[in-house]
Amino acid sequence: MPVIAPMPAAHPAPLPSQRESAEDAVPAGTTVDHLTETYRAHYRSLLGLAALLLDDTASCEDVVQEAFIRVHSARRRVRDKEKTLAYLRQTVVNLSRSALRRRILGLKLLSKPMPDMASAEEGAYDQLERDALIKAMKGLQRRQREVLVLRYFADMTEAQVAQTLGISLGSVKAYGSRGIAALRVAMEATA
């Protein structure tokens, strides 16, 4: 049978006298009104600071807006009313640095050249050449075809081809040269 954990006891609502003392405990520098006033009064100077670090107006505005949002979210950590502007300035600087890092990374990724790839026309042309070569190879005598396939496609030496086919080295050379000559004629006829 599953065990059901008891629900935590709800905290009773503070009495009116307790609420007033809790509000008094919040430092003056952390109020939303103070942050809003600071933001309105120093928006242009913060925008100028961001403009010194970044190069386009849209990014500067985004950085200043984001700085205000972040300081607003962390307003409980601002203990001194006089440090609110300093927090905003430092946040603008940090966000500008981050924006520059993202740009530099983006430029590094974009500056890498794309790998060379054959165009569709080149691929089609190569396929036609392969098809013509295969057709021409099928038209060769069996021994010529065997010698050429082992020599050039299997990348064997003439001695290895001779040993594999059980023929002499001279025969490998003769079949090879006659096969290449026949391929040349067949390929010129298709071109």
Automatic annotation (TrEMBL):
SUPFAM superfamilies: Sigma2 domain of RNA polymerase sigma factors, Sigma3 and sigma4 domains of RNA polymerase sigma factors. InterPro entries: RNA_pol_sigma-70-like (IPR039425), RNA_pol_sigma-70_dom (IPR014284), RNA_pol_sigma-E_actinobac (IPR014325), RNA_pol_sigma70_r2 (IPR007627), RNA_pol_sigma70_r4_t2 (IPR013249), RNA_pol_sigma_r2 (IPR013325), RNA_pol_sigma_r3/r4-like (IPR013324), WH-like_DNA-bd_sf (IPR036388). It comes from the Bacteria. It holds the Pfam family Sigma70_r4_2. Keywords: DNA-binding, Sigma factor, Transcription, Transcription regulation. CDD domains: Sigma70_r4. Residues 1-24 are annotated as: Disordered. The keyword Protein transport does not apply. Belongs to the sigma-70 factor family. ECF subfamily. This is SigE family RNA polymerase sigma factor. It comes from Streptomyces tirandamycinicus.
